[in-house]
Amino acid sequence: MSDQIIGLAPGLAPSLNPWLEQSPEGGVGASAREWVKAHYDKAVQDIFGYHALQLGASSLHTLAQSRIAHRWIAAGISSDKRAALFTNASALPFFESTLDLVTLPFTLDMHSDPDAVLDEVARVLVPEGRAVFAGFNKMSRWGVAHMLGSKRLPEGARIYGIDRLKASLAELGLVIESVERGQWASHHEGLYFLIARKRVMGVRPIRRAAWRLPSWSELPLNPFPNPNPRGLGKNKKPQAEK
Question: What's the domain range around 73?
Fold first, then answer.
């Protein structure tokens, strides 16, 4: 086994951080890092709660500007010193409805089972909790070049795509609050940024027909039946039958 993958959680590619840490002259990783980091810094400031988790891309520090007190970075490589938690994103060690915010910078694009990751995110989010995604846009020059074998994107990337993400979020009951795509023909053209909220199902109101008093027309003909079916008084004896 190669030393490069020792301590790697199943399903997570090890090459995202080196790609993000490229020098500005070395490739698109540095510009992608700048664009995504700026969007996360702005978005997380207005999300409140008690617990927040970042899944992957530990070099981004997506929770740096968050006001949530308890914040953790989870990584799939145990040697990642910037992470506080070593786990697979498709099997999170949290109870149901415990996290107020989960950030996923390129997590779906770098995982072998992104649908399982989304299932876990929907499970651990509290009602009204937020999931904030950044990823690669499949319908872009970056995406097309990647499918044709270009080395522009990080090694091991599997583009999940924003259209597929929207459909999956709808199935899981997460409502999209905002979406932003990198401008065409810019250095960020192949990126997207999406914020989703876990919807709370409202209480179904009782319909009026279920509790209203019946109308007179709906009452039986004799609403107060005689307890003595033969109409006999206390001191009367029944007549002998003929």
Answer: 36-198
Q: Is residue 242 part of a domain?
A: no
* Count of the separate structural domains present in the chain: 1
One digit per residue, the tens of pLDDT, for the chain of length 242 reads 333 334 445 555 455 787 788 766 556 778 888 999 999 999 999 999 999 999 988 888 999 999 999 999 998 776 677 888 888 899 999 999 999 999 999 999 989 899 999 999 999 999 999 999 999 887 777 666 667 667 777 777 888 989 999 999 999 999 999 999 877 656 677 899 999 999 876 544 444 444 555 555 555 555 555 556 555 555 555 555 55
Q: What is the DSSP letter of 188?
A: T
Q: Tell me, what CATH number does 141's domain have? A: 3.40.50.150
